[in-house]
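Weekly puzzle thread! Below is a chain. First person to post its structure in token form gets bragging rights.
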Amino acid sequence: MAKVERETTVTEELLRDFLHDMLLIRRFEEKVEERFRAGDLPGFLHVAIGQEAVAVGVCRAMDDGDIFASTHRAHGHTLARGSDPRRVMAELYGKVEGVSHGYGGSMHLYDVERGNYGANAVIGGGLPAVTGAGLAFKMRGEPRVAVAFFGDGTTNIGTFHESLNLAQLWKTQTVFVCENNHWAESTPGWQHSPVWNDMSKRALAYDMKSLRVDGQDVEAVHDAALQALDHARSGRGPVFVDVTTYRMHGHYIGDPQVYRSKEDRQAAADNDPIPRLRARLGLSDEEFEAFDEEAHRVVDDALEFAQAGTDPKPEDALQNVYA
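Winning reply:
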């Protein structure tokens, strides 16, 4: 396992872009949580508040031809990859204008034009797909990489081990990004994994290159992602990236979090990546408020667009059904 050393690979302008993206994701998820609690949005809702630096750091490092597969906590990855906030919001509202035309909702976001090959409500469901995509890129001689996002709980299931084994065996152009918030839904890391505090050790069994990085530092995440993507793109094999992060909210909106101490929740709040990046940039209150106001404006516009969107016809439910 290689620990990522801090290198100054980003400009202040790029760091400001990171802040823009992170604030957009934060305000977007706060808004959808508000509307979900008001009864406007159907189904379940999972937010990644506190984990924005992971999505932005990795997705900003990807090239145009790269693809990724996400999890049930997919809003951040989707927005960080450049999907239109209007269309993402419309998808959550089940509108025809949504990125998946209303078929997917929050847990099944797709935007193939942006390299988003699908959020997946099945734990670890995206790993076999990106292993296959990484193999296809290699066989075609294409300089592209397939990225999988997943949580620490995923490292205990069979598809995780099968995917890493085949990826390393076939030297696929794949990067595995473990968003290690130390909560497998509601089970603390120390209760579900003997290597919970260093998930990069999971890659040792497959002799796979691994990196470990602080997921609350967007610059460090970006550096690690660039290293991992370059390694995979060059044909030297897949990379496992253990990104330690904090989930500030529960597993889902409405989760009472009875399994979690007040101290743990406070620690997550204290490690918020947004104030950390603001301090890194040395922004004044006035400068930060300008970023925040822009994020609120984009989200309010997206909400208005979604609420005025087109409801699908009942017979549309029979489309895209294969049996």
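Puzzle host: Confirmed. Bonus trivia for everyone else. The first strand starts at residue 2 and ends at 3.
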